């Protein structure tokens, strides 16, 4: 497929809850959530976990000077890379940050400012150069780069969370992370949101057996990823938000088990790119 018609997603951070660098996480990655969607000649980023640090370095190497960053939510593992995101400190590099999960008088700016205030961090959020902060209503949609539709939906996660669906030229990729499933059946609204997507990236932090001990934590399982993928008739299921204690060996075993049930299923690998 030519670059003019593709949607691709690059995984800069695949780990959940806390970064897990080390020799036993090299294959699937130790950085927390950050993905970059490329559509035509432009791209945008979702989430600012520790993976956004390497993403920022790469963006500067490419000569970029503008970027949109969207958040699923602002739990620590999804925003902790922001204070070290190089482009936000570069004069002439404009970054628009967006979030749709906040309410109760909270704003994206006020929440992000708290992690960069003393005594937690030595410099305030205001030190970032040319940056704006926008709050949108979850469930809304918009055009990006003129020919790409970005749709959103609420996800079942403590303090709110946003799922994203990116559509372009008849192709679609869904990004559904930090979501707790309904034990009885896949959520009909989420099934409708993911319906027919070429790729569905899904929170597979637990196994079904592990989930029984973590009800209410706001995360799902790799088996539920397959059930939702079947119900929504998606193309490829990609397991994401890997458990911080999951070694490469254990993650590879889960990937193999999932692929045996639903051929084509993979676990997201940091540094890899998938195209729809």
Beginning-to-end CA distance, first to last residue? 9 Å
Q: Segments where pLDDT lies below 50 for 5+ residues?
A: none
- SSE order: EEEHEHEHEEEEEHEHHEHEE
Sheet with the most strands: spatial strand order: 6-5-4-3-2-1-14
Described by strand count, sense and barrel closure, the largest sheet is: 7 strands, mixed
Radius of gyration: 18 Å
Secondary-structure content class? alpha/beta
Q: Count of DSSP E strands?
A: 14
Helix residue percentage: 10-25%
Strand content: 25-35%
Mean pLDDT: 96
The number of helical runs is 7
Helices and strands, with pairings:
Elements: E1 7-13, E2 34-39, E3 42-46, H1 51-61, E4 66-71, H2 76-79, E5 94-99, H3 108-115, E6 130-135, E7 141-144, E8 148-154, E9 162-168, E10 171-176, H4 188-194, E11 199-203, H5 208-211, H6 222-231, E12 236-240, H7 248-261, E13 266-267, E14 273-275
What report would you give on this structure?
With 276 residues, this protein is of the alpha/beta class. Helix content is 21%, strand content 27%. It is built from seven helices and 14 strands. The protein has a seven-stranded mixed β-sheet. It has a seven-stranded mixed β-sheet with strand order 7-8-9-10-11-12-13, covered by helices on one side. The radius of gyration is 18 Å and the shape is globular. The termini are close together. The model has no long low-confidence stretch (mean pLDDT 96).
């Amino acid at each position: 497929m030519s670059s003019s018609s593709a949607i691709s997603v690059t995984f800069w951070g695949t780990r959940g809850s806390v970064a897990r660098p080390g020799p036993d996480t090299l294959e699937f990655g130790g950085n927390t959530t950050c993905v970059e969607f490329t559509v035509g000649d432009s791209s945008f980023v979702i989430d600012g976990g520790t993976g956004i640090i390497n993403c920022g370095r790469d963006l500067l190497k490419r000569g970029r000077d503008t970027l949109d960053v969207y958040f699923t939510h602002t739990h620590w593992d999804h925003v902790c890379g922001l204070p070290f995101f190089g482009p936000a400190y570069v004069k002439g590099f404009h970054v628009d940050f967006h979030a749709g999960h906040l309410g109760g008088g909270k704003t994206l700016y006020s929440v992000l400012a708290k992690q960069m205030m003393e005594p937690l961090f030595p410099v305030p959020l205001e030190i970032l150069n040319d940056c704006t902060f926008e709050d949108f209503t979850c469930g809304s949609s918009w055009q990006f780069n003129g020919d790409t539709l970005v749709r959103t939906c609420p996800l079942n996660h403590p303090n709110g969370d946003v799922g994203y669906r990116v559509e372009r030229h008849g192709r679609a990729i869904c990004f559904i992370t930090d979501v707790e499933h309904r034990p009885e059946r896949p959520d009909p609204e989420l099934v409708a949101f993911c319906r027919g997507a070429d790729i569905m990236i899904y929170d597979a932090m637990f196994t079904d057996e592990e989930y029984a001990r973590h009800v209410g934590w706001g995360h799902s399982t790799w088996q539920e990823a397959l059930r939702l993928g079947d119900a929504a008739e998606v193309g490829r299921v990609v397991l994401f938000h890997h458990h911080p204690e999951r070694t490469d060996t254990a993650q590879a075993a889960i990937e193999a088990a999932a692929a045996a049930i639903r051929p084509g299923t993979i676990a997201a690998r940091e540094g890899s790119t998938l195209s729809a």
